[in-house]
Each structure stands twice: as structure tokens, then as C-alpha cells.
Amino acid sequence: TEESATEDRSPFEGLPNFEREVRFTEVHNYFVSITENPASSDLTRSVFTISKEFIVRPQMDMRRLQSAVMTVIARHDALRTRFMQSAEGKWRAYLEKGLRPEDFVSIEEVPDETAARDRATEIARQTMEVTERPLQVHILRYGTEGDLVVSKAHHIVVDGYSLGLIMEEVVKAFIGFPLLPVGITTEQFYDEFYYAKETAEERDRYLRELFADPPPIPKLGRITKGLQPNHHAIDAGIGCFDNQILGAEQYARLKETAREAGCTVPQLIAGAFGKAICRFGDVDEVVMLMPHSLRFERRLENYVNSVASLIPVRVRASEECDVAQVAVDVANGLNKGL
Prior knowledge:
Blueprint: H1 2-8, E1 18-22, H2 26-35, H3 42-46, E2 49-56, H4 62-75, E3 81-85, E4 91-96, E5 105-109, H5 113-125, E6 135-142, E7 146-154, H6 160-175, H7 186-194, H8 200-210, H9 231-234, H10 248-261, H11 265-281, E8 285-291, H12 303-308, E9 310-316, H13 323-337
Parallel strand pairs: 5-6
Antiparallel strand pairs: 1-4, 2-7, 3-4, 6-7, 8-9
Helix pairs in contact: 4-6, 11-13
């Protein structure tokens, strides 16, 4: 009958690029229950779109960039996952195949860097739908000077930290650096870890066994300059430093010092931390990954980006520099990074 034929028909019938169905998990359901809830506001839905932006000078080889993006896409099945709602209202997930660079990478010409930054803000503010491909890479090209790259992803498959790692892989693939093996697939994560391990101890043991023999770290930095490694001097593992809670008097002094320096208290603390790392590591500068929310202290933009979006800030802290001066450099670095 017509009804039985309808029941036998696959909900994925006719979908282009369909490879196979994958598990629609309770994690996926959590995000969908919020983003697709009619009661959710546009602001609530926008929280689940994560973006990172950076400028590349000089102008990139676009074919090489597209190839790098597709290399990373092929490595991570999460980036090839699509979500759809069937006719009966049930949500499903599936993997795509036969994808092309233009499915993920777009190129747009703009007059200059100022226009590129304005356009990047517009793109970053556009909410991604859960039914879209979960990764977008927008290239804003201005003349021959450079490119502004806006990477966007839906929180249903990545978070702010992992989006940074994905774009780091794109940069490595573009340069030609070897990419580390993928330690665990999405399906392994759910089948062998998320659902199979009930306690924190079991999960901890599983991860320690999985990454018991990590690949060697590339020899970069001091070693390439002929200097001795200084890992022993900059080890900041658990237990290296004691946590201290400032009393009211000490915190008041800290606020006054920050006010006089023209920075926020977190920026002052970050400056002190950077100076300490430089001293322990016997270097004059370090690059610190800092949450962009430190630019505004506690006036946070949104939850996901405030805790996950990081900006690389170069901190120069020679012995002659005082902490307040370093803190001002941190503040300027945050402003420049944004």
C-alpha cells in the first residue's frame, strides 16, 4: 500500500552526498532542543555559533588553502556530519561524501582591511543553522595585501577550543607540516568512551591508555636556535604552584595598581604571570593564549566565546620591565588581537 511504501522509504532518500547514517546522540539532542525550540531567542541561538578570525599576510594561495581545508575535513568525521529532521519530526544524523572545497570555503573581495574587518564582524554575527554544514571558512581578500580568514562552526560538533585546533591543523596542512594521527573517531568516542565508561575513574583510565604513547613533539623554538631546552624551568603542572586567595586589603592594592597602570585586574595578573614565565624560562618574550573576555574584565560577550575563544598575545618581559608595564602590553595585545 501507499502507507507501507512510505514507511519503507529511507528518510535520507534523495539527499545529495549521503554516505551513511550515524548515531544522533543525547548530546546532539541537547543542542537541538535549545536551538530549535520556538521559545529560544535569536540571542540564545547565536551562542551556539562559534567563530575565530585571523589575518594572513601576504595574500594566500587559494588552491593550497582549499586543499588544506579538505585535508582536515577528511580527517574529522564530525566536520562531515549533517543533521536533518525527518517528515515525522525525528532528528537524524548522517555523514556526507563527495564534498568539494566550495562546500566549505568562500572567497569575497573587499576594498581594504577596514572593510574586511567590518565584513568579518557581520559574518561572525550571522547565526548558523543546525541543518547547515557545521564548518564554514570565509576568506575576505583585500587587494594583494592579505586575507582576513573567518572560520565559523556550530557548537553541536565543536567548541571554541576544538575550533582553534581545527584551524591550527589547516595552517599546518597549508604550510606542509605533518598532521598528528587522529586519536579517536566520533563513533569511538561514544561507543568506547562516552556510553561505555560510567565513572570518572574509568574515563580517566581509558584516556591515559589511549594516549599513553603520544607522538614526539616537533622540534621547534629553542632547539632550532641551538639552545638547550628549558622544559624543566617552565613546568607548571598540577601542584607546581599553590593557589592563594587574596584578602580584601591585598585585592584593594591590586585594583589600585591596575588603575594606575591603566589596565584591568585580570590583565595585571596576566602580566605578572607572563613575566614569571619569562623569568623561569630564561627568555625575553612568550606568546600567551588568553580569553578575549580579559579585554573587558567581567563584561562578557557570550558564554561560549568568553570561556573558549583565545587570542595569542605576545608578552615581552625583560628584567628591566615592571609588571605594570607588561600588563599594559597585555592589554594592548588583546585590543590589537580583537
